[in-house]
Design a protein that fits this description.
The protein is mainly α and about 575 residues long. Helices cover about 50% and strands about 10% of the residues. The strands form 6 sheets. Strands 3-5-8 form a 3-stranded antiparallel β-sheet. A 3-stranded antiparallel β-sheet has the order 4-14-11. A two-stranded antiparallel sheet has the order 1-2. Pfam families: p450.
């Protein structure tokens, strides 16, 4: 994700000195927000021109400096640059970049040199020892990209995704208890309720009415169905709020729901602003940034501003209401609230004073939980259903395991189903929703390698000296043995993949799907539980087969199915015969 965008609050909030406007860009939209007078328009153009010139000059100077003095990274093998301006970045980050990533992993060893903007050198890393150094052992030397940190701060505020160092550790420490196994057990009834409401027991779910009106199989867009389901999961179990009635022919009308659906597409349309996000977030006081943004005649930016305003308003209201419940001493209500945000507020209420979240931080955490939890879970669910449709033998075996159990399982019974666990692990290993991450080197350091590489000059290197400021795209797809590129759930036994001797640093089995170290996915157990509940309910009722060979998966944040460049997953669905 990438663009220059403000967080937007109501005028009532930003007029106060304690408003989140002290930490972000704020804009209040009105019908005349983008009416630009000629003098202001000229001033805006001048500022943009000078700013762009300064930025290009800075990048060009760095490129010349590397050209004259050379780079210690120039000896690393890698694909040739495809563009003087963008290097390999278009191929690396494009929506159809799967083959390019596969080429990097198959044709090169451990670390690959990637050409960035105007000759900038980046390192594409998939060596286990290097990954361990980046994510665990030396993680303080490798921070999130400044662009990612600035973007998430502008979109959501000061939360776990937009902070680093001790501040990030403080956020993580307060949030961790909400995702404990004990609390996940308490959320399980809500997850089953949503799954049964949508797929199993009631007539007005998203699938059942179609199959009752038609005697045989029917083609359905599972992308729409599973995306709506994922949002309701995170709504009910994440924040204690229902976004969607999950009924056929009745699209959600909630403004917040529509905003979540439109957020990522709006961001992608403004990706050209990615390089100037860090700079733009620091120019002048908030009032000046508001003024400058109000001069930009961009319809997409206006839409995005409105989206962020709605999301922030909803999260603010939710946190305010739940905090009032705590402050008014409604112990029974809070005791029976097992959603993530309620548990977070409970944890925050007992934290030391120097650890507690401020209200604006709680709002940021809430927005991040909803956005991140919805998109990644939706991507994973869609991919699993598609994979099962492509592999009917796996689907049949998994259904047989599920049919041998009762309809509603306890937490321990559900997580103990071996083949269900194997199918989910294998899908997430081979097709992670997020395929790569980027880290920036904060100081000169040495990157160790488990497998030595041969440099362009023929020298063997078992470590690489990496200069400060180097960007490091890091693959999340990980090895599964000799048949690593094949879908094979049989490789998994008791959470371990047979034939894999190299230990990865991820928090989820021997893979990097949920990353590792201090910035690993805090809710990865919650996501696993959602996936298992949905599959245990769906496969008991329905059989899935491929409706079209035109389905293509677009690489992104996260990956999504597509037909003719439209977000679709057409799958033939039939009722399981008794």
């Amino acid at each position: 994700m990438g663009l220059l965008v403000p967080r937007i609050l109501s005028s009532r909030l930003y007029q106060t000195s304690t408003s989140p406007c002290d930490r972000t860009l704020i804009l209040v939209l009105s019908p005349s927000s983008f009416a630009v007078s000629p003098p202001c328009h000229q001033m805006l153009l001048s500022i943009i021109q000078y700013g762009f010139l300064l930025w290009i000059s800075y990048v060009f100077w760095n490129a010349l400096r590397r050209l004259w003095g050379g780079s210690i990274l120039d000896n690393i093998p890698g694909p040739p640059s495809e563009s003087v301006l963008a290097g390999n970045l278009a191929r690396l980050n494009g929506a159809d970049s799967w083959d390019f990533h596969k080429t990097l992993e198959e044709d090169f060893n451990a670390v690959v040199k990637i050409h960035g903007l105007l000759g900038d050198v980046q390192l594409y890393v998939f060596d286990p020892a290097a990954l361990h150094s980046i994510l665990v052992k030396d993680q303080d030397l490798y921070e999130e990209s400044i662009i990612f940190l600035s973007l998430t701060g502008l979109l959501f505020g000061k939360g776990i995704l937009s902070t680093t160092g001790n501040e990030h550790r403080r956020h993580r420490k307060i949030m961790m208890p909400a995702f404990s196994t004990k609390n996940l057990r308490g959320m399980l009834p809500v997850l089953y309720e949503v799954a049964h409401r949508n797929f199993g027991q009631l007539r007005d779910g998203l699938i059942k009415p179609h199959l009752e009106l038609n005697a045989g199989p029917q083609e359905l867009d599972m992308y729409s169905i599973l995306s709506r389901t994922s949002l309701e999961f995170i709504g009910r179990a994440g924040i204690g709020y229902s976004f969607d009635p999950l009924t056929t022919g009745e699209d959600p009308i909630d403004q917040y729901t529509q905003s979540l659906k439109n957020l990522t597409p709006a961001i992608h349309k403004l990706a050209v602003f990615l390089p100037i996000v860090p700079l733009a977030s620091k120019i002048g006081p908030p009032s000046f940034r508001r003024f400058m943004l109000s001069l930009i005649p961009s319809k997409t930016l206006g839409i995005l501003c409105k989206i962020v305003a709605i999301m922030d308003s909803k999260a603010t209201a939710l946190v305010r209401d739940k905090n009032q419940t705590i402050r008014h001493g409604d112990a029974d209500a809070m005791e029976n609230s097992n959603d993530v945000v309620s548990l977070l507020l409970k944890s925050n209420s007992t934290a030391d004073e120097n650890m507690k979240f401020m209200d604006d931080e709680l709002v940021a955490q809430t927005s991040m939980i909803i956005h991140a939890g919805t998109e990644t879970t939706s991507s994973a669910l869609n991919r699993i259903i598609h994979v099962l449709a492509l592999h009917p033998d796996v689907q049949t075996k998994l259904r047989a395991e599920i049919m041998e159990t009762k309809e509603i399982l306890s937490h321990d019974e559900l997580v103990a189903l071996p083949y269900l666990d194997a199918v989910i692990r294998e899908t997430l290993r081979l097709y992670p929703p997020i395929t790569a991450m980027t880290r920036s080197v904060t100081q000169d350091c040495i990157l160790p390698l488990s497998t030595p590489i041969t440099g362009i000059d023929g020298r063997t290197m078992d470590a690489i000296a990496v200069p400060k400021g180097t960007e490091r795209p890091t693959t999340i797809r990980t090895s599964g043995g000799e048949d690593a590129l094949e879908f094979n759930p049989e490789r998994w036994r008791n959470g371990q993949a047979r034939g894999v001797t190299v230990r990865m640093s991820g928090v989820y089995g021997n893979m990097m799907t949920f990353v590792g170290g201090g910035r690993s996915c805090i809710g990865f157990k919650f996501v696993q539980l959602e996936l298992k509940v949905v599959l245990s309910v769906l496969l008991r009722c329905y059989h899935f087969s491929v409706a079209s060979d035109a389905i293509r998966w677009k690489m992104g944040s996260p990956a999504a199915p597509s037909v003719d460049n439209r977000p679709l997953l057409p799958i033939v669905v039939d009722r399981v015969k008794a």
